[in-house]
Amino acid sequence: MAERFDIAIVGAGMAGASLGAELAPHASVLVLEAEDQPGYHATGRSAAFWEECYGGPEVVPLTLASGSYLRDHGFLRRRGAIYVGRGSDTAALDAFLARFSARGAHIERIDRKALEEHVPGLRPAWTGGVWEPACSDIDVAGLHAHYLAAFARAGGTLRTHARVERLERTAGGWLITSGGAAFEATILVNAAGAWADGIAGMAGVLPAGISPMRRTVVQLRVDRPPPGDMPLVLDIHGGFYFRPENGRLWLSPQDETPSAPCDAAPEELTVAQAVDRLQQVVDWRVEAVERKWAGLRSFAPDRRPVYGVDPADPAFFWFAGQGGFGIQTAPAAARLGAQLLLGRPRDGMTEGLNPALYSPARLSR
């Protein structure tokens, strides 16, 4: 006989774990994870930071709403961030400042002298920037473990090595075949990350157009070693970011290469491009590429997350399309998702959010 739950969530990465933790005190919840361990894909490969402007203006409210929870629970370590630009980028820097300040981000313009104080060895071409003092590193593993533990304490059921094999719509909701077992649930939540559109297809629901994109990160040994308190440095045009990590440098070329859902791996050409871009920014000598990895970041066509009931099926709930900002927005996104699912009122964390911005109903399918 199939085990019965109020809600079944597909995916135990940060999205599924955080939403499960918010739901489990109020409903019987099952989380199904295809891999042997939760968070194997995007969550486990994140070089995460809490950065107010990351993800675009429509994501800023989710990021800001999540900040207090992350700080209060000890998951943030202040670092600061600088978006840097060349002499020809004055207009781009000014437009960035105006665009994100209007949404509540705490940022300010800085000049070359201030850049030099933060980034030693900066090449002369880089003349101005936007400073964000509140940017912080996130303890991704700690946050994920926090949500998994809260889910378990509230009576939630986690099944790993449980890839969804079949979804059948029934009068009472869903019959789910996974890992050779059968489960019934009234509501099915799609938190499957790069596999989200595939899960929708199995359920007979139109896809949301969520596209996985590969993002590469490398760990470098450089001479001179970056100061441990150096801020996160990002290109105003999205061509790179880097930050120190335990005496080494974590660097990404901010690649977004379309990919099928998979166990992503870095490509040598992309690694070489990352190193080349770094050497155009600072005069440090790269001594070795010590590690390299890649993960998939999944976007809806308008690059906003997809949270809410599918317009064609009230028993199918989307919680996907978090791009590269799913870690830093997890507290507010999960709280909002649970409130939408359970029909509960908004609270202090979510009262400033507009669910229509993230609803699947906005997508033309």
**Structural domain count:** 2
Strand content: 25-35%
What are the segments in which pLDDT stays under 50 over at least 5 consecutive residues? none
CATH topology of the largest domain: FAD/NAD(P)-binding domain
Q: How far apart are the first and last residues' alpha carbons, in Å?
A: 36 Å
Number of E-state strands: 20
Q: Which CATH class of the largest domain applies here?
A: Alpha Beta
Order of helices and strands: EHEEHEEHEHEEHEEEEHEEEEEHEEEH
| Biggest sheet statistics | 9 strands, mixed
Mean pLDDT: 95
- Summarize the amount of helix as a percent range: 10-25%
Separate helix tally? 8
Describe the structure concisely for a colleague.
Helices cover 24% and strands 33% of the residues. It is α+β, with helices and mostly antiparallel strands and 365 residues long. It folds into 2 domains: 174 residues, FAD/NAD(P)-binding domain (3-Layer(bba) Sandwich); 142 residues, D-Amino Acid Oxidase, Chain A, domain 2.
